[in-house]
Amino acid sequence: MEIDSARDAADPFVSLNNDEKQAVLKDLVVTRRSSVAVLRRCVPRHQNMTTRTSTRQEKKAAVLREEFALHRCSKACLILESEAVQAGLYEKNPLTATELQECTLILNLRSNGKKRKNPPQPEMPRKQVRTSLECSSPGTVFPFILPQTEKDKIVEEFRESTSNAALKRYECSFCGKLELATDVKMRPVTELDISLLGFAVKSLRENSSQPLIESFKNSSLIDRSTYVLCHLCNLSVKHHKFQTIPLRSYANGLWIGEVPPELKDLTLLEERF
Ligand SMILES: [Zn+2]
Ligand SMILES: [Zn+2]
């Protein structure tokens, strides 16, 4: 949100408590039934409010009115003096530069990037110490302290994304590539026709005199009954049948047999020597 200094002087943001802000908002949205243009201009000044839907469509007036009705004004919400006067709140003090900066910081943080669907933020803890520092260096904004629920959520997200389940990788039965569970496709042995790979492997065995070449690795099957397909190998499958031979598959001449354990866990650097 941009703060226009010329406009600020004529119609500054005023210092109100949350109940007063709520009353001004009610006056604007319900009592006056302001036009959609007025509502849209108002939206970026209220915490957790947006003018567009998740699909980037402009919200209609009715939707905005509904959301404003559910909205609870917080410390970050900004009210213009003209709006306060309209609602009968006269001679309120304008926000100081520091207060204004703090509010815009919170509003910007909340309206940009990934949105968390949180209930309205509890009031920011305001430390006594900050007031005295404010006087010594106006314009300084201190990082606000996150509420405990927000901290818990961050820890939970971290634990989820680093859990064993989230990091587990499956080996592709046809090329050996390791992929995340979300990227691989499981196909029951009985439902996937791999005859094309069978033909390719047969001629590979004959041409290279290597009778041990296989089209898939037996040990990578799940419960001996389900193939694991990486997203690349899965591209070659249509109507439960391999239509082409995947580029990096064993059946395309990349079978090297069982790798001894000494060589299995080499690092990239070790592999080069
Ligand atoms: Zn608000
Ligand atoms: Zn694969």
Structure characterization notes:
Strand 5 and strand 6 form a beta hairpin. The strands form three sheets. The chain has a two-stranded antiparallel ribbon with strand order 1-2. Strands 3-4 form a two-stranded antiparallel ribbon. The protein folds into two domains: 106 residues, no CATH class; 91 residues, no CATH class. The two termini are 56 Å apart. About 5% of the residues have low confidence. With 273 residues, the protein is mainly alpha-helical. Pfam families: DUF6570. This is DUF6570 domain-containing protein. It comes from Favolaschia claudopus. InterPro entries: DUF6570.
Low-confidence stretches: 110-116, 130-135
Mean pLDDT: 85
**Biggest sheet layout:** 2 strands, antiparallel
Shape: elongated
* Total number of distinct structural domains: 2
Structural class: mainly alpha
One letter per element, helices H and strands E, the order comes to: HHHHHHHHHEEEHEHEEHH
Name the descriptors.
about 270 residues; mainly alpha; two-stranded antiparallel ribbon; two-stranded antiparallel sheet; 13 helices; 6 strands; about 40% helix; binds zinc ion; DUF6570 domain-containing protein; DUF6570
Summarize the structure.
Helices cover 41% and strands 7% of the residues.
